[in-house]
Design goal:
The protein is mainly alpha-helical. It has one domain. It has six helices and two strands, in the order αβααααβα. It has a two-stranded parallel sheet. Helix 3 runs antiparallel to helix 4. The mean pLDDT is about 85.
């Protein structure tokens, strides 16, 4: 009986603590779609990415053309010429891979550009969310777009439109 009473008190205490916490949701995808600067930045990054992709593809195509020429001339080449051409082809392929890594690698130019252009927008959103959370006393603000385990959430606790209003983009 003592254990039952203790367990009941513990459960009651846990439910009181849980209900005392205030939380809210934001939908970052929704917020970002409604910020024109984000859309322009995304378009700019897309154009840069396409330009760089074209450069990489041009080098890869050049290496392919060199290989096709090598294949057609193979019968007429001496052993020394064969190895020289093979080295040139390998060098061109390596050049294409290096350029691809430079532009699109983990610490590549595209990543750095994205970081430089997106960080101010993300910081502005973060500061608006933080300010709203501090004003309203929210201990937790969850991004509904990235929280895969949220099956349903009441629209009453979604503060996405408030964040947009705070940023000057009223919906």
């Amino acid at each position: 009986m003592k254990k039952f009473f203790l367990a009941s008190c513990l459960m009651l205490l846990c439910s009181l603590v849980a209900s005392a916490q205030k939380y809210a949701l934001v939908d970052m995808e929704y917020i970002l779609k409604n910020i024109p600067a984000y859309e322009m930045t995304n378009e700019q990054l897309s154009q840069i990415s396409q330009k760089w992709q074209n450069e990489v593809e041009a080098l890869q195509q050049e290496a392919q053309n060199m290989y096709k020429t090598y294949q057609s001339d193979l019968v007429f080449l001496s052993a020394e010429m064969k190895s020289k051409r093979e080295e040139e082809i390998v060098q061109k392929e390596q050049e294409a891979q290096d350029l691809k890594r430079k532009y699109f690698g983990a610490d590549g130019e595209l990543y750095k550009r994205r970081e430089t252009l997106m960080k101010p927008i993300q910081d502005e959103i973060y500061n608006a969310v933080k300010e709203i959370a501090d004003d309203r006393g929210y201990q937790i603000v969850i991004d509904r777009a990235s929280a895969m385990s949220i099956i349903y959430a009441s629209p009453k606790i979604d503060i996405s439109n408030e964040v947009l209003s705070k940023l000057g983009y009223s919906k």
